[in-house]
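Exercise 7.
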Amino acid sequence: MIREATRERRAKKLKNRVWWGAFLCFLAAASWGAMFPVAHAAFVHIDPFYFTIIRYGSVTLLLCAILFWREGKEAFRLEGRGLSLWGYGTMAFTVYNLFIFWGEDLLGAPGVMTASIMESLMPMISILIGWMIFKKRPQPFTLGCVLVSLIGAVLVITKGDIGAFLGAAGQVFPSTLIFIAVIGWVIYTMGGSKYRSWSVLRYSTLSCLLGTVTAVVITVGATLFGYLSVPSAESIRAAGPHLLFMILFPGIIALLGWNIGVSILSPLNALLFINFVPVTTLVVSIFQGNGITVFDLLGTVLIIISLVANNISLRMSQKVEAKRPVQTHFRERTS
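Solution. The predicted structure, written as tokens, is:
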């Protein structure tokens, strides 16, 4: 009886932990999906560059305070990894954040869905990067899923008119910026595996700190050369609610919540929650009154189907691989 009660308590505790991890991953993905329409509304008052450095300057200060409280001043030592950490941080908090919002702003209202769809392509882009750089050839089914997801992205970005899209330089350039931004975040995510001896909080904080410094230098330099102007106090005040949301949810809560959720559920299980990014963007955009086309809906559905199908395929492959040694051992014993 005592053993059964203990097992039940452990099972309940594990189940609660899984639900907590799922909630954190859902919250992170929903926050990332909502940040594009929220940012679009903020760009009426403030440009994407100052929007980014104000947002992540605040996030950096909060993360540094949390890291100092949790791990002390020793956690701020770079341990000879400063250059690589700066590189990864620049990919995430300069290349990704500056480029994706710059591109979204240049595209106007259509940039909201374009940025969101590009974000949801991250798992597929990471597969292609692993193939090209690390020679990890994906399975044919995975390649098929990548192709379907890319078709979905093309439908959303071009609104079904590829010829008109290619003929409009004003659309190609910002779309390229968004694509480069997404690649930057994928590189940052892959770089996290090199810091497994560090806590998630430490890697997130120090990379955010160094990457944000780069973004500040670029923004200040562009201002000095006359490409940007410092936003007025009134503009910052008008964008205040949007900045507060971006700092708390897609910033602090999503960044830490996602990493904690992944550690509970595993990357494979957490990957499914990426599906909520374009869905949340669609819902928020509809409430804001932004136009949604049939190509936005169709492209989003194709990407979600490809992500779910590839995730299921990976699960089945892992189960087969897990059973194979057992089956081999059984045959050896019976022969």
